[in-house]
Amino acid sequence: MQQNSSVTEFILLGLTQDPERQSTVFFIFLLFYVATILGNTLIIVTIMFSSALGSPMYFFLFYLSCADTFFSTSIVPRLLVDSLSTKKIISYNECMTQIFALHLFGSLEIFVLVLMAVDRYVAICKPLRYPTIMRRQVCLILIVFAWIGSFVHGTTQIILLLRLPFCGPNLIDHYCCDLQPLLKLACTDTYVVNLLFVSNSGALCSCSFLILMFSYIVILRSLRNHSAEGRKKALSTCSSHIIVVVLFFGPCIFIYTRPPTTLPIDKMVTVFYTAGTPFLNPLVYTLRNAEVKNAMRKLWHAVRMRE
What parts of the sequence cross the membrane (predicted)? Predict the structure, then answer.
């Protein structure tokens, strides 16, 4: 994979250099990661085996949980290992692979969130045409396009990075490999490359966020014509989505839509969308969703009965 570079490895500074704080970082992120994996796996299994959760909304929620699981796994395990190491070395190829996985599954999460907003728009604003528009075949096609778009996005980022020469230094002031920290280490002018990154990642985040916000504004305006019970149910669903969208897109837009500079706050901001959002998604979509909670109870009782 390595091209145009004499650097074979990078050194990550991590979240902190203090040994005592590193132990704290390890235990905090271990709890976050275990909860993330268990929560998203529970949602995946519940949707797979519950006939009551066969609607398009839960079809997309299934893929959101998959994206969360892989997205978190591309970052947090490496952070856990590094928090116990005195020298945090990552090879050039591992660094490029981590960036590809980060952007592949991060963009997949973005596309799935957009699809979930489209699903809610059709369900609330076009209820009579909902079964026709959001057919199973249509949902499958949309997910396939989401995967293709994510792959194209991740591949584009890597192709741009592989063209950059790295000849030292190799110290990355971050806990993971990402675009802006690596641009600082490239021994060439990166102005044009950064513009391409912003037009790719930055535009993806910003445009998707605007589309999502516009769709929810339209949905909320349309609720005036619904019954009180219908408004309550729709507001509960949409508020869950809006919480996730703000927590995920806010930090992403801050990181990927600015000139090639790194700030001290970048590492903490990155924590929000690499570890925080995948952890919160299962809580938001289960604690605020009666159908998911009921399906989980039925699945648990079925497992207990078999024992």
Answer: 25-49, 61-80, 100-118, 138-162, 201-223, 235-256, 268-287
Q: How far is CA 272 from CA 66, 120, 276, 279, 285, in A?
A: 18, 25, 4, 10, 18
Tokens of 204: 């993806």
Measure the CA–CA gap between 227 and 234, rounded to whole angstroms: 10
* Beta carbons within 10 angstroms of residue 194's beta carbon: 19
Domain ranges of the chain: 9-306
Question: Dihedrals φ, ψ of 31, to 5°?
Answer: -65, -45
Answer whether residue 103 shows pLDDT above 90: yes
Does this model's pTM top 0.70?
Answer: yes
3-class SS letters over 124-149: HHCCCCHHHHCCHHHHHHHHHHHHHH
Handedness of CA 296, 298, 302, 305 (dihedral sign): positive
Distance CA 208, CA 111 (A): 8
CATH number of 9-306: 1.20.1070.10
Residue 285, pLDDT > 70, answer yes
